[in-house]
Write a structure and sequence with these properties.
The protein has one domain: Tgt2/MlaC (Nuclear Transport Factor 2, Chain: A). With 207 residues, the chain is of the alpha+beta class.
Length: 207
């Protein structure tokens, strides 16, 4: 009887230890909340802006790339940007589209944040959005006090919050603009022409 009770006691202790270990792992691996993701992104953008001239375009792109790739859901954004055409692409084309879309997105940021005149970033709020998404509202605050809204829409990718769209000036969906262009080109002129246009856009952003 005693050995049986002892065995049960040991098994109970082991179960508790396993639960505690799992809980600690889960706490350590908890995803960043959307606000924290935007704060990290804003800190990087500010550093890029303050060192824009010294870095040059390529330096800004290199500094931004690892943060943007961790912050944005570029594969999901590329899929949304081509709409139903995604299902007609083969695996090689999908991989190429995601690669070029990512390169273009990084180039866009490197081109857009190309100088510093005393601006600062401010997060002004956050709220749940349709389809289990989350919106973080932020401003670029100019020295004059003028604010430029820059809002981010988040979705969960493998448990992590990732940005899936940017609303320029608070209302203009960057992804919707891309989708309108991409779907039109794919439908009328095909995949190769879309790749050509994206590569042309990247070259123009480089200056």
């Amino acid at each position: 009887m005693f050995p049986t009770m002892l065995n049960r006691f040991i098994l109970a202790i082991l179960a508790v230890l396993m639960w505690l270990t799992g809980a600690l792992v889960n706490v350590g691996a908890a995803p960043e909340e959307p606000r924290a993701v935007v704060e990290r992104l804003n800190a990087t953008l500010l550093q890029v802006m303050m060192n824009a001239q010294r870095l040059g375009f390529q330096g800004r792109a290199d500094m931004l790339a690892p943060v943007l790739e961790k912050t944005f859901a570029f594969p999901e954004m590329a899929r949304i940007a081509v709409g139903q055409h995604w299902n007609t692409l083969d695996p090689e084309q999908k991989a190429k589209l995601v690669e070029r879309f990512t390169q273009m997105s990084i180039a866009t940021f490197a081109n857009r944040f190309d100088g510093y005149s005393g601006e600062r970033f401010e997060i002004v709020g956050g709220e749940a959005a349709p389809r289990d998404r989350y919106l973080v509202r932020s401003d670029i605050v100019k020295p004059s006090g003028e604010t430029v809204p820059l809002n981010y829409v988040f979705t969960r990718i493998d448990g992590d919050w990732r940005i899936v769209d940017v609303y320029l000036k608070g209302t203009i969906s960057e992804l919707a603009t891309r989708r309108s262009e991409f779907v039109s080109v794919l439908g009328r002129q095909g995949f190769d022409e879309l790749m050509r246009r994206i590569e042309k856009n990247i070259a123009a952003l480089r200056g």
